[in-house]
Every structure is written in C-alpha cells, then in structure tokens.
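Milestone M4 deliverable, item 7.
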Amino acid sequence: MNLVQIHTFINLSLPSMKNLFFKFIQFSLVGLLGMVIDFGITAFCKEILKWQKYVANSCGFTLAVCSNYLLNRYWTFKSSNASLSQEFLSFLAISIIGLFINNLVIWLCIQKGKISFYFAKVIAIGVTVMWNFFCNYFLTFNQAFIN
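Output delivered:
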C-alpha cells in the first residue's frame, strides 16, 4: 500500500465507509461459502483420501480461492477489468500469501497452543480473511480509487 492509498483509506467519507462495510460483508459471505468448500475438500482429502494435513489444507484452500475470485469479481467488487488473467493472478498471489499465513497460524496453534487441527483452521481463516480483504480491496480490485 502506498501513501496515496493510505491517505485515501483514512479520509474515506461516511458513504464510502458504508460502502466499504457492505463490501466487507459481501466479501465475508463469499468467504463463508469458500470456507464450506475449503473445509469440505480438506476433510475429504485428509479423512477419506488420508492425505497429509497440510496438503489437504492446501487443496481445500486452492479450490476455495477459485470460487471466491469469481464471486468477488462479479458480486462483491463488480469488476469490469478487461484483464481477467492479470486480476486473477493478483487475487491468486494475495491468496497464496494468505495460504502461507493460514498454514503458519495452523502450525502455531497446533504446535504452540496444542489446539486441534480444525479449531486451528477456524482461527487461521479469521486471521487470513482480514489480509485477503484489504489487499484485494486496494490491489486486485483497486476499490479505493473507484468509490
């Protein structure tokens, strides 16, 4: 985030703050669907296919990212960016960094906090959603300059 984006974010008007709030709600609803996809695929890969937990987690996360991108592009941010591939790559890069954050939080919760895998996953999703929303808001969908 550069200084212009930070200044724009700090000086948002009340209607813009309301718009930001509703975009966050929409982003979160998309994320809830993504979480269902993520948990479903993760559980299937870990419990049924007996894959290693971090590989299963990565598969669930990847499929959720694809569905989340499409829903956020067309519903949350109503993007009209003609460069679909560039926009998706930005969304994917942010999501991959989010995946590292997600796995790190899971690892810390399990190793240091002695928390169960699935509860650690819920905590990790909570941390990662904030990263994903603000990075996608400012970078992928460049909303700070649209509103």
